[in-house]
Amino acid sequence: MKSMTLTSYGADAPFVEAELPRPLVTPGHVVLRVKATSVNTIDTMIKGAGKDLPLSPDLPAVLGMDFAGVIEEVGEGVTGFAVGDEVYGCAGGLADLQGALAEFMRADARLIAHKPKTLSMREAAALPLVGITAWEGLQRAGVSADQKVLVQGGAGGVGHLAVQLARHLGADVSATGTGDDQLSVIGGYGAWPIDFMDEKIEDYVANHTHGKGFDAVFDTVGGANLTNSFAATALNGHVVTTVALSEIDLSPAHFNGLSLHIVFMLLPMLHDVNREVHGDILGKLAKLVDAGTVKPLLDDATFTLAEVGDAYARLQSGKALGKVVIEV
Predict the structure, then answer these.
(1) Structurally, how many domains does the chain consist of?
(2) Could you say which of 262, 284, 303 is where a domain stops?
(3) In 10 A of CB 278, how many CB atoms?
(4) Which of 149, 192, 307, 327 could form a disulfide with 174 if both were Cys (CB 3.0 to 4.6 A apart)?
């Protein structure tokens, strides 16, 4: 089968077209024909850092975590799926799990779900990693109806889904971004857009929460921005972050009694723990998509498998609005 493979790691390392054996089906798994895969920030981090990250696969490596495709073989013990089913999931591209930058992929059946019927393969491939992350973050923070929620980076991959899911839960949602395009996206989802370049934290906390702070802040920016999230959160509130790879002073969180939740959705893949939870979330997410409650945001640029290097560059350029997707 054709694949785009890394034979070295590094920011400038090229993807190389290679013929690899088609994966064999094993118990509890399916083999699927990949139709589309999306690029996530963690993919670019693995490519750039290589084995400095404990989750990076050995070389030669086939990356690509998210996918949408069609089942070609079903392994022993798999129920609920059949040959020909259209599915989506996040099931490879790290450790010893082959990724989706190939014509075929073996996936643990616990990590996949039937693709939303109303989405194309390209659209469905944009959802799994960011959708699961948004879902888990809001669940960890206990977001519910009538709460005031702030999403930092509301037009980003995780952020745009966190906004929509929080709205579905009945929360009063505000979200940060900058520029007309991002603010328009946020407003289009029914959230209050905040231009972080123009509005100070104390101003938007005063305007949107009467100075009390948000019940929950979902920070998809991380790093130094966590300090901003602490400052925007109500007493005894919740802060969720997807980017905690930094040293930071937790004193503001301490003196306000905040709960800090770090979401690292790759743990089930890395440690084979509670993988069925991801399949369950994807099944529920598909129903919300088909009901018109949630819709993925895709960047306008399109890429083929041979153009994977350009797709990675597009995401890293900061110019993409929405998920970058590669069609296989």
Answers:
(1) 2
(2) 262
(3) 27
(4) 192
